[in-house]
Design goal:
Blueprint: E1 5-11, E2 15-16, H1 26-39, E3 51-55, H2 67-74, E4 83-86, H3 92-105, E5 111-119, E6 125-126, E7 142-143, H4 163-174, H5 178-197, H6 225-229, E8 251-260, H7 264-268, E9 274-283, H8 293-304, E10 313-316, H9 321-331, H10 344-347, H11 354-369, E11 373-380, E12 384-392
Parallel strand pairs: 3-4, 3-5, 10-11
Antiparallel strand pairs: 1-8, 1-9, 2-8, 5-8, 6-7, 9-12, 11-12
Helix pairs in contact: 1-2, 3-11
C-alpha cells in the first residue's frame, strides 16, 4: 500500500450567520477554495486530479445535492474529474479526507482534492410533501439550518433532544461547570485573535470576492470570563450552563485540502506536510454526541501505533465548550496542546467545512512547531465522532 499525505490546505474566513458571506452561494464558496487549492500547486495539471470529495451537511438547497461535482464545474476544472459529496453532518469534510486517504492508500488515486462547505445563512426552509393532495389543515416549514427536522416518530425521544440540551446532559454527566465552560470559551477567542495577529492564518485563508471579510467574523477579542458569565443560558432557564458564549455560532464558509501519494510531490510541485497515519470513527448514544470523539481518537492512535504520550498538538472542533472539556478530561491530556490557535467557539463552525479546517490547521501547526504527532477530531450530531492522526514529515 502507498501512503496518503496532506500537501496543502486553504479555507475562506468563516462568516457569521447573516453576515459577510451570507450573500455568497455555498457552491460558489466551494468552487473558490477548490480553484485556490489548484492555483497554489504550481506544477499541477488539473487533468491529473483523480477525484474531488467534499463534505456538506445540508444538501437541500443551493448545494444542489452533489456540491462536489457542482463546485468542480464552477471552478473551471476539467469536466472529466469525478466528484462526490459526503454527509456525516459536522464531520462531513473530515470524512471526505478519510475517504480520499483510503483511495490513495489503496493505490487508486495520486491527487485528490477534499474539503467541505456550508452556508447556514442560506440553508432553506423545507415543506414536507403531504400524504394526500389538498390537505385541509396547515403545514409548517422546517428550517434546515441545524439539528433535527422532520423527525421520525419511532425515534426514541431521548435521542432527539436539541444539541444544546444534549450538551447540558453531557455536562451533568461529566461534571463540567459553567465556570470552566466560560473560561474555555474566553481562551478560544484570545487564542484565535492572537493567531490572526501573528499571521498564522494568512496562508491558510483566501478572501471571498465581493466581500471585505479578511478574518473570521465571529471572533470577539474582548470576550472575558466575566462578560461570558453574565450571559443567560439558552436551553435551560434553571440550572442551565450552555450559553451563546460557550457554544460555537452558526456560520458560513468553505475549506479544502490537497491530499496525495508520494508521487503527488512530482505532480504538484509541493512538498508533503504530514502523513495520514491513523483514522478512527466511533458512535455512542445520540444525546451524548459530544463525547464520541474520545473513542474515535483513541482508535486512530492505536491504528497509528502511538499513544497520547506521543501527541504534541490536538485540533478538536469546539461545538460546545462542555463537550470539548469532557473529551480533554477523558483523554487525560494537557489542555495547553489543544487548539493552540483558537477553536470553533471563536472561529466558527460552518458544519460541512469544519473537518478540513481542523485538519489543515493541525498540519500547519505541526509544520510551524516542528512537533511530530498530532490529532484532529470532531464530534457529530446523532452520536458520532471522527479523528485523524497526522505525522509531521519535516521533523
Amino acid at each position: 500500500m502507498t501512503q496518503a499525505y496532506v500537501y496543502d490546505a486553504v479555507r475562506t474566513p468563516f462568516g457569521r450567520f447573516g453576515g459577510a458571506l451570507a450573500g455568497t452561494r455555498p457552491d460558489d464558496l466551494a468552487a473558490l477554495v477548490l480553484g485556490e487549492q489548484v492555483r497554489r500547486a504550481p506544477e499541477l495539471d488539473p487533468a491529473t486530479i483523480d477525484e474531488v470529495v467534499l463534505g456538506n451537511a445540508n444538501g437541500a438547497g443551493e448545494e444542489n445535492r452533489n456540491v462536489a461535482r457542482m463546485a468542480t464545474l464552477l471552478a473551471g476544472l476539467p469536466v472529466g474529474i469525478p466528484g462526490t459529496t459526503v454527509n456525516r453532518l459536522c464531520g462531513s469534510s473530515l470524512d471526505a479526507a478519510i475517504i480520499a486517504s483510503r483511495q490513495i492508500d489503496a493505490g487508486e488515486a495520486d491527487v485528490v482534492l477534499v474539503g467541505g462547505v456550508e452556508s447556514m445563512s442560506r440553508a432553506p426552509w423545507v415543506l414536507p410533501k403531504t400524504e394526500k393532495p389538498y390537505p385541509a389543515g396547515d403545514l409548517a416549514l422546517a428550517s434546515t439550518t441545524l439539528g433535527w427536522r422532520l423527525v421520525n416518530p419511532r425515534m426514541q425521544p431521548e435521542w432527539t433532544v436539541s444539541l444544546g440540551e444534549a450538551t447540558e446532559l453531557l455536562a451533568e454527566k461529566h461534571g463540567i461547570t459553567r465556570e470552566r465552560m466560560d473560561e474555555f470559551a474566553s481562551t478560544s477567542h484570545q487564542r484565535t485573535q492572537r493567531a490572526w495577529d501573528e499571521g498564522f492564518y494568512d496562508d491558510l485563508t483566501v478572501r471571498v470576492p465581493g466581500t471585505d471579510l479578511t478574518r473570521d467574523e465571529s471572533v470577539r477579542a474582548s470576550s472575558t470570563v466575566a462578560k461570558l458569565g453574565g450571559l443567560k443560558t439558552v436551553f435551560r432557564k434553571e440550572n442551565g450552563t450552555v450559553t451563546a458564549g460557550n457554544a460555537s455560532p452558526l456560520n458560513d464558509g468553505a475549506s479544502a485540502a490537497l491530499l496525495g501519494s508520494e508521487r503527488a510531490a512530482e505532480l504538484t510541485g509541493l512538498v508533503p506536510i504530514a502523513r495520514i497515519a491513523g483514522r478512527g470513527a466511533a458512535a455512542n448514544e445520540p444525546q451524548y454526541f459530544g463525547f464520541a470523539p474520545v473513542e474515535a481518537a483513541n482508535l486512530a492512535l492505536r491504528r497509528a501505533g502511538i499513544t497520547w504520550d506521543d501527541v504534541a498538538a490536538v485540533e478538536l472542533n469546539e461545538a460546545f465548550a462542555a463537550q470539548s472539556l469532557a473529551c480533554i478530561d477523558a483523554w487525560g491530556i494537557d489542555p495547553g496542546i489543544v487548539n493552540r490557535h483558537g477553536g470553533a467557539i471563536a472561529i466558527g463552525h460552518p458544519l460541512g467545512a469544519s473537518g478540513t479546517r481542523v485538519l489543515g490547521t493541525l498540519a500547519k501547526s505541526l509544520q510551524s512547531s516542528g512537533a511530530r504527532w498530532g490529532v484532529a477530531a470532531i464530534c457529530i450530531g446523532v452520536g458520532q465522532g471522527l479523528a485523524v492522526v497526522l505525522e509531521n514529515q519535516n521533523v
